[in-house]
Amino acid sequence: MPETPTAFQRGHDHDRCVRHALSAAADHCREAGLRLTPLRRKVLQAVWRSHHPLGAYEICDALVAEGDQVLPPTVYRALDFLERNGLVHRIASLNAFIGCNQMGRHSNGRYLICSDCGSVAELPPDELLERFAFEAGAMAFEARSVRLEAVGRCAACAAGTTGP
Amino acid sequence: MPETPTAFQRGHDHDRCVRHALSAAADHCREAGLRLTPLRRKVLQAVWRSHHPLGAYEICDALVAEGDQVLPPTVYRALDFLERNGLVHRIASLNAFIGCNQMGRHSNGRYLICSDCGSVAELPPDELLERFAFEAGAMAFEARSVRLEAVGRCAACAAGTTGP
DNA sequence: AGAGAAAATGTTATATTGTTGCAATTCTTT
DNA sequence: AAAGAATTGCAACAATATAACATTTTCTCT
Lengths: 164, 164
Ligand SMILES: [Zn+2]
Ligand SMILES: [Zn+2]
Ligand SMILES: [Zn+2]
Ligand SMILES: [Zn+2]
Description:
Two copies of one chain form a homodimer. In chain A, 43% of the residues lie in helices and 19% in strands. Chain A is an alpha+beta fold. The first copy, chain A, has one domain: Arc Repressor Mutant, subunit A (Orthogonal Bundle). In chain A, helix 2 (38-49) packs across helix 4 and helix 3 packs across helix 4 (72-84). The structure holds a DNA duplex.
């Protein structure tokens, strides 16, 4: 069974992809006793709809464009909730957020960040990350999250099919 | 031969550690034909002296405290130079900079970030990172840098010998 | 040495990102 | 319904980073 890709990929039905993510998030929250309020849902939807990681102020703009009056603290609080509960990731080097496709295995992740077009692909965690957490433990470091970020050029940009 | 630790470690002669880093940086720049100007040297020294990753504005303050009048753009430009040339790393999740102890193998690295005390230890790159870069290449992603950031609790904090 | 080009730094203003604190509202529980 | 907890609205503000342009220093070539 193929992974749901986090980053936008050409030629797929992204509306369907977003709907799937939102319904999975709703399921996850119901099971975990979390409140996916309308605001949080809208923020999550804005993040998923985007083809790039979205900054907090871009999320503001997106919601305002839909007629909601939201200010930064509101968005940051919703993002806090979503990140704490593994529904989005913050890509620190971009000051931006991306939908998470690995709900429940939130703490570890691997990301391919294209410095040309800004797209980010999330790969599933693998045993290397877990092994690293174990090795860190041997050095008396208790790792809560292990994240690997590769910065470079994505296939589309290398092929010249995307503007910078 | 033991690695020079990036993060502060109890009970070592940190002045000596800083002097070593600065002289290694000077050597590196001389060999590479780079200009380690007085300003850049002072910024690098401020970063190395600190026991935590240092923010750009903290660096400003440190230099001002020594009698230099420096403003943010000046510091950011010096940091740009130092980072481009592998003398410091930016820890994106902390908006802060740390001296690099892996000059020349700058692009890949592994970091242990303590969320209690803010200390960061840099571990040397290993085959895990190279293997990941290779796998990314198989997916047509050209990785220029691969960095692993583990967030958790360091040994000192776990032992309760450090305040938060 | 001296002129011109390039690199580095100084300075002012501004842009971007993120937070604090408190009031108002909504949801949950008793 | 009443009390308490969680969420949201709102205004001001703090922290981080950059743009644009002037000035100085350094390098290069004659
Ligand atoms: Zn999609
Ligand atoms: Zn790209
Ligand atoms: Zn030291
Ligand atoms: Zn610590």
